[in-house]
Specification:
Layout lengths: L10 H20 L5 E5 L4 E4 L1 H4 L17 H6 L13 H8 L3 E8 L5 E12 L5 E10 L1 H26 L8 H28 L3 E6 L4 E4 L1 H7 L3 H4 L27 E9 L5 E12 L5 E10 L1 H23 L3 E5 L5 E4 L1 H7 L7 H6 L9 H8 L3 E6 L5 E10 L5 E9 L1 H47 L3 H28 L8 E3 L1 H10 L2 H7 L2 E5 L7 E3 L1 H22 L8 E11 L2 E10 L28 H11 L3 E7 L3 E9 L10
Parallel strand pairs: 17-19
Antiparallel strand pairs: 1-2, 1-5, 3-4, 4-5, 6-7, 6-10, 8-9, 9-10, 11-12, 11-15, 13-14, 14-15, 16-18, 19-20, 20-22, 21-22
Helix pairs in contact: 1-9, 5-6, 13-14, 15-17, 17-18
Length: about 675
């Protein structure tokens, strides 16, 4: 196992990097003069720039928390989405078509004025290409709208006057002079209206020009001059190819036979007078005379180069940030104050699945309510990093770090880092257990040496007395003393053998019967006291095995102890069914010979729903009586022997633990 204790990532540096990226993105957005809103697919406003914060149409203070504000409430003061009250919704159009759309809305400002705004909505895509929402750019077109209405009104007035004059044509002879005066006045009004329309055309904040059927420019307003660098005098009567590039160089998108008009939000590339290539978004339509004949076309366009560069930059930074989080070798969750998961990286997506929107206590512990001692809540209240360890429902152990931070939407959230330390904890526990066993071994050796001398003395003195005594009762008693003394001597001998810890790589050729006898000698007294019967079945000529005998004895002692626990739990007193059966045999597995040892008890059995977890570290069915490490360490030792540990159980009836170890060949080496 790789030791990561001296290789800890600098989380503060990672946090500063993320914060720097967010600040950079915010500063880029704030540099745009038009109000920009980032709206999620749930119609909630996720981000606004500085221009939007100063935007007088917002229904609430933009400096306050707007994370829960919906776009229809923030812009229009509505309680329902726009499409439910008869308004056009750019978000729905973008999500349905996947393309940018333009809409015009009248918005009531906080000053009491009602202005017209052109809304450009572009799709916001995730790393996998899915639609996350839209980016809306608002532009005040009130003056343009007023100019259009003025032009329309002038045109309607002119039509009304022409109609009036036409209706009075029958009385023309009677009032010819008066009609001439009125006509001249109408002509003057028309001339004035045309002049006003031309003035509006020149100063309107969108670039507009017209062409004839030969694609020669017939009019050119001030904004077109500003965006292209060409003056009106330089382009009039010149073909529009003077500044057009792709795709106009290949074919005309307006006059082509298969062209569909009107053209809305078509992106093209133009070349300015100083040689710069700019991206424009244009609208175009054909011009027709009163008979419906085409006599030209009109186009309006705006420069979106900076906007596209900003979008590309934003997309690049977003992709970079997502790549960084995906490559992170630790789990990462971002939680709201309400314990809701709003972000997870690829590490946790593979571990838990997609759990966005769920509560952390549901994902981590399967609880419906927050944990009683919630580390996240403590981190938020203290505004300091909190660390702890958590054992999940699957038995895996994780080190957790809770880092509170203030998100771009102004809400205080918590970043949770999870590092899987299950193997590390198991290794530490195994090391600690090995140390404890070594200490116990040293203590056992010391005690055994202290017992050996007096017990040998007792046996010798009893033997001397036995040689001289003639009383049958005394002979029987002294015989029992010698027998029990020899039994104590055997136990001491086994303790000494168990305490002699060999190196982890030290192996010997051993007989399974010897290991079982040594292991059972340490527990026979407890079995006898508990009323547990032993049924030991070891056929003759069993194959030898090569391994560390002390470690195998540790395996057997753990299996015997678990069986004793289950039998005592089912039969608190003495019972004829309170039996432990140990049977040895040989089997063929994968074409090789193995020595099989089956330890069967008729105790409580193992529930079916947990039998798959009994070898997991820290998993225990004994409650406070167990550490959850015994079978995990046993499983690891059997694996080190290149063997297999299996289990078969039926709740309330029996449990059989099966140990398969590679049998030795004629040369005394394992065949597997």
């Amino acid at each position: 196992m790789q030791d990561r204790r001296n290789h800890k990532p600098d989380r503060r540096k990672g946090n500063r990097s993320v914060e720097k990226n967010f600040k950079f993105l915010q500063s880029v957005i704030n540099g745009v003069s038009d109000p920009i809103l980032v709206i999620g697919s749930d119609m909630q406003v996720k981000l606004i720039n500085q221009a939007a914060r100063n935007f007088p149409a917002l229904r609430e203070d933009a400096d306050n928390d707007i994370a829960d504000s919906h776009c229809y409430r923030l812009l229009f003061g509505l309680d329902k989405p726009c499409n439910q009250v008869g308004r056009h919704c750019p978000l729905i159009d973008v999500l349905e078509t996947g393309k940018a759309v333009t809409a015009e809305h009248q918005i009531m400002l906080t000053t009491g004025e009602a202005n017209f705004f052109e809304i450009l909505a572009s799709p916001l895509l995730g790393a996998d290409g899915s639609a996350l929402g839209i980016i809306e750019v608002l532009r005040d077109v009130t003056e343009r709208h007023k100019a259009t209405e003025a032009l329309k009104k002038s045109h309607e007035e002119l039509e009304l006057r022409v109609q009036d004059r036409t209706s009075d044509i029958l009385s023309f002879n009677e009032a010819l002079q008066e009609e001439i005066i009125e006509r001249r006045k109408a002509e003057d009004d028309l001339s004035q209206a045309i002049e006003q329309a031309q003035q509006v055309y020149r100063v309107i904040p969108s670039a507009i020009f017209t062409v004839d059927k030969n694609q020669c420019i017939t009019s050119w307003n001030n904004k077109a001059q500003e965006l292209t660098g060409y003056s009106r005098e330089e382009v009039l009567d010149k073909p529009c190819s003077i500044f057009s590039m792709h795709p106009c160089q290949d074919r005309c998108g307006v006059f082509a036979c298969d062209a569909k008009t009107p053209i809305i939000d078509k992106e093209c590339i133009i070349k300015t007078k100083d040689g710069r290539l700019r991206i424009i978004s244009k609208n175009a339509d054909l011009l027709r005379d009163s008979n419906g004949n085409i006599h030209g076309a009109v186009e309006s366009f705006e420069d979106v180069t900076d906007k596209r560069e900003f979008e590309n930059q934003l997309r690049t930074e977003r992709d970079k940030f997502h790549a960084m989080l995906s490559a992170f070798d630790q789990g990462l969750h971002i939680l709201t104050r309400d314990y809701e998961i709003v972000f997870q990286n690829e590490f946790l997506r593979k571990l838990f699945g997609d759990r966005i929107g769920e509560k952390c206590h549901q994902v981590y512990k399967g609880h419906d309510e927050p944990c009683e001692n919630c580390q996240m809540r403590e981190a938020l209240e203290s505004k300091e990093i909190r660390r702890g360890e958590l054992v999940m429902d699957d038995g895996r152990c994780y080190q957790q770090s809770y880092v509170p931070f203030k998100d771009v939407d102004g809400e205080t959230k918590t970043l949770i880092l999870l590092r899987d330390i299950t193997e590390e904890k198991a290794h530490q526990a195994e090391t600690m257990r090995a140390g404890q066993l070594a200490s116990i071994g040293e203590l056992a050796a010391s005690v055994a040496h202290e017992i050996n001398n007096p017990i040998n003395g007792i046996i010798n003195y009893a033997q001397i007395l036995l040689d001289d005594i003639k009383d049958e009762v005394g002979i029987d008693v002294l015989g029992r003393v010698i027998k029990e003394g020899e039994r104590i001597a055997d136990i001491v001998s086994n303790l000494l053998a168990f305490s002699r810890q060999e190196d982890s790589d030290s192996t010997l050729v051993v007989e399974i019967g010897e290991v079982l006898d040594d292991s059972l000698s340490l527990l026979k007294h407890q079995f006898k006291k508990d009323g547990i019967g032993l049924d030991l079945i070891i056929p003759e000529e069993m194959p030898s095995i090569r391994l560390n005998p002390q470690k195998l004895q540790q395996v057997m002692l753990n299996l015997f102890s678990n069986a004793r626990y289950a039998l005592n739990l089912r039969y608190p007193g003495r019972d004829q069914n309170k039996q432990l059966q140990i049977a040895c045999s040989t089997v063929e597995l994968r074409g090789k010979r193995y020595l099989r040892t089956e330890v069967t008890d008729h105790g409580t059995g193992i529930p079916e729903e947990i039998i798959g977890n009994i070898f997991d570290p820290f998993f225990s069915s004994k409650g406070s009586d167990g550490t959850g490490l015994g079978l995990s360490i046993t499983h690891g030792l059997i694996k080190d022997f290149n063997g297999f540990l299996g289990v078969s159980s039926k709740e309330g009836e029996y449990t059989t633990m099966t140990v398969d170890l590679p049998a030795c060949n004629d040369e005394g080496e394992p065949n597997a």
